Amino acid sequence: MDFLPCSHTLAAARERNLDFTSLCADYYKRETLIDAYSVPIMPVGHPSSWVVPSDIAAWVVLNPKTKRQSGHPMEGRHVSSSERTTTQSCRRCGQPRHNSRRCSNPPMVNEGPRTIVPNDYRRKCSICHTIGHNKQTCPQKDTPVE
């Protein structure tokens, strides 16, 4: 066999009281690993101490020639067909590809039926919780609490 056994094979071998090592290729056994490193490994030393023939030392070896891939570089990664694609949009101005923290555009306002920014994302007054003013300009600011 030229492989490691799968978990199903190991379960069947355990059921039949077989030795697992008989199912593995010799390449994966501990004895093969020990035999591979039993031969002494000789260090090569510093390159200045190497004896190199003069005809080989005269060769000039350059880096391989590489060519940059043509076309515009890819932005991001390829999206799998099973993934949903969503674009990030700013809740302040409605523009795509940035958020409200990094927004330098003027804020969009709601103009009747042409709502660009949903009302859920617009700031509300902290006193009466309506959109269109803040607590400093709230008409209910100075009304007494009953």
From TrEMBL:
Q: Which domain of life is it from?
A: Eukaryota
Q: Which Gene3D superfamilies match?
A: Zinc finger, CCHC-type
The segment(s) forming the CCHC-type domain are 89-105, 124-140
Gene Ontology MF term list: nucleic acid binding; zinc ion binding
Q: Where is this region: Disordered?
A: 67-116
Q: What is this protein called?
A: CCHC-type domain-containing protein
